[in-house]
Amino acid sequence: MRKALSYLLAVGLLTGAATVHGGTGHAAAAEGKLQIRDIAGENTYVMSDGSMWSMVGGNRLVHTPGNVVQVSSESDSEFDGTGVTQDGKRIEWDIAQAPHTVNAAESGFKQAAGPYWLKTDGSVWTREGRVDSLDDVAFIGYGNRKLGALTRGGDVLIENPNEYGAFKKMGTAPNAEAVRAIAVCGDKVALRYDGGEVVVYELSNFDDDGRIVPVTVARDSVHIAYAPGDPTDILLVARQDGTVWRTGDYQDRWRLTEQAAGLSGIVKTVPMPDSERFYAMRSDGSWVRYDKGTVSDIEAPSVSRLDVSVSNAKPFVGDVLTVDVQETYTNGAKLKVPAAEARIQIQKPHLLRLQKDGTLKAAGVGETEVTVVSGGASKTIRISASLRNNLKNAKQSNGAVYVPAQSVLRALGGTVAVSGTSLEATVGDTALSLKAGDANVKLNGQSIRVKNAPLADKAGMLIPVSLLTDAFGAKVQWDDKWKQAVIQFGAAKMTVVSAETAGLVKKAAQGSLARFIGKSYWVNSFQEWERFSKVTVTDVVPDDTGSFVFVFKSGAGRTLKSYPMNSSFASTLLTDGTYFLNYDPYKKYKWPESVWKQIKAGQVSRGMTKEQVQFAWGSPSGKSVTTANGKTIETWVYGNFDTVAFVNGKATFVMT
After folding, report:
1. Which terminal residue of the chain, N or C, has fewer Cβ atoms less than 10 Å from its own Cβ?
2. Residue 122: is it exposed, middle or buried by C-beta count within 10 angstroms (0-12/13-18/19+)?
3. If DSSP states are collapsed to H, E and C, what string results for 127-169?
């Protein structure tokens, strides 16, 4: 069973969680077209797979998974009701909550009627607990806020209007074991027998001795249901000939007086609050709505559109892709489907692997189609996976371009086995058998002759790129500028560089940064390196992200590397005195060793010059200058509120 997601409610229903249009949660639907199994009100359907459609908040469609077999509307509202599941659990819903289990630890329930549930042991329950005054019950019914029951012994019971929680016996039904259904409304209880007979008990219909007189209404019924009416409640009877009849008013309340026009093949009815309107199920499982003589089909909600997206349609090999699936239904609902529970078909599984959690992992370079099937609809998307890092050892020989067999075939998602100078490889449905120096190649068991034979090389076997075109349909180009082979499958590609490529790329990437190579600098403040130590730039190395790393050699001969930085910052790093000085500070400033020691420790003391303070603390956030009594007072304030004041260029006040 496939499941769809929407808004997650607090309580789950059986095997899943309730869902609402617009959020994330859980919903279910079987593959193929579902039918409506039961109806409890407008837009409240039990589907043939046991899931439910209902409403939350009066305007949000809810699709809830489960195995519901029967539901009952609790009141005149379409927004609340109860039901039971195939495994005997109780469910309920209301205007604020989607269908959910009531005390999931309990089971053994077989029927719901209004706010009541009947257990297989004959006990009757509400949400609050067991109804003590009822026992050994075979059927329950609910209508017009009254509960009726038939016991296994045949007692016909109705809630006592004069005593809360008590039940009045209306009579004893003969042959009670043949009763197949019950319908209740107000002070009336109707029983349907397996032969089609319908018998009605009514509190107000009694003989001279006060005994209620049962009345036979029909003898050929297949279903009965009460609808509240004015002035008389109406009994709807679906008959064996597929027609639907209704009882009349007053003295005709026990007679089928009117046939619902335009209906045929009906096996079940579900009344609406208005007795002139009801739902009806045909023998083929389809449903119609009867509205004062007008008959209209009820469409079972089905997927009208499937939207599928992936986190990256052009990933690199090794990337994991998430798949988002959304179903749009004919009733307007939009439900998210967990990818792990949709059916995902991959055209070339050696390029893209389906993980247990529904994610996809790019396993090889190439293009493949991914088809997602959900709710009877499907959507296909194309994934183009490329290689993030370049492969090595491409070369030109005798006018032909060669690439390393093992690394390239594995990058295509293949498996490779090498024995001496022979190689066996499988890439998807394609099998290759090669031998170095032999122009005869086996492709899927058939011998073909290639123009350029595979080569034995110190890096392993090299194959001509023409073989990739013949065997896999690759488009291969030799980039003479960078001395590299570019292998493409549509939008997917990988690059195989030669021994010359790195030097060409580095030279081009360095550009103007090459001017720093060979120059010496003194560290001011950079990566916690020793301050004022001398370093010399030995290289500027580009990486595959477009950033650069400066490589230095210290005075002691150690190799030091900067963090990666973009080209604009790299151009200013060695020209901004904040980081590096282009002079030896010890030679420029003949300060005592004690002062240099304080500067390196980041300490400032009275008597220091402005240059010394700036070396120790850096540039201040703000400065102010005043003149008094022929003295110039300059105050520096730092971002951490450290303050130093200079009188005639000497620090006379320090606050930290």
Report:
1. C
2. middle
3. CCEECCCCCCEEEEEEECCEEEEEECCCEEEEECCCCCCCEEE
